[in-house]
Write a structure and sequence with these properties.
single chain; mainly alpha; two-stranded antiparallel sheet; two-stranded parallel sheet; 15 helices; 57% helix
Length: 328
Amino acid sequence: MTTTTNEAGPIRWYKTPVDKQAFRALLEKKDGPGLFIVGVTLALLINFGYLAYATLGTWWSYLFFFIYGSIYVLSGMAAMHETHHRTAFKTPWLNETVNWISGFMLHKEARYDRWRHLQHHAYTLYEEQDPEFFTARPPVSPWLLPLAMAVYYPRELIIPFVHATGKRPAYIDERINDKQWQDIVWSSRLFVLGVVALVSWSILAQSWLPLVYTIFAPYYGGFLATLVQTTQHTALAVNNPDHRTSTRTTYMNPLLQFFYWNMNYHTEHHMYAAVPFHALPKLHLLVKHDYPEPSDGFVNTLKEILPAAQRVRKAPQDFIRVQLPEQS
């Protein structure tokens, strides 16, 4: 059991007991698995990016840009998430480089987003404390979530411009110390320079393409990633100190799991966040006896959670109550 302090007192998080020796073996960080995914992803982006360019003016170009954008956003989202925890790579500078670049790809300044995400882990689905609470209780109909990204991404893009001024906004509370704030400020300034460079390139080239491949990609390529992300917490319990009731593990096909960096084992990740992504399937085998039955397949999971999310918006008490094993 681990403890996090919130306004109402300590949150004593439930943890499934695991064999200590087997667990320690899972904590080993490696560069290879992450580099392999990054390499394959980069190769596919170059390939589909070229096909989209080569077929400009035809309907094929729309298809190739959609595939390019879907890989760009889903893999970028997963890479940023894993490197937030500093577990994706053994080599620290490699972890931080991938973290910053993947954040930039998604309009997120990585240093601030890391802090925000770690608050999500500290207060998972605790109302008014978890900055990612909306992942469990979407503010709009779940059927409109992909369209809602048209509002979400511009907001994320604006945040680094605000932070780059160096003036501390009211929402940056005392949990971010002065050193962390300075890291955020300088990272935000680098982010702004990156955006200015891309816009300048587009103007000098007299072409929208530099922006289409980068800044615009989350808008046309975010549909799949948004749906995948809904499997994590949507319509589950809130204000509950047991991750098994608020977080969902979903069995996915190998291709989707690859680009998602094994984040479909999401309950395991929340309960034991120090375990690197490449070891999550093994962790799953150690703890699954104490977990609810995993959701069976991406499409089947959507069939369950999208109607449930619609219901819970109207009746908050009508959330999905998972069946825990009897010994729990």
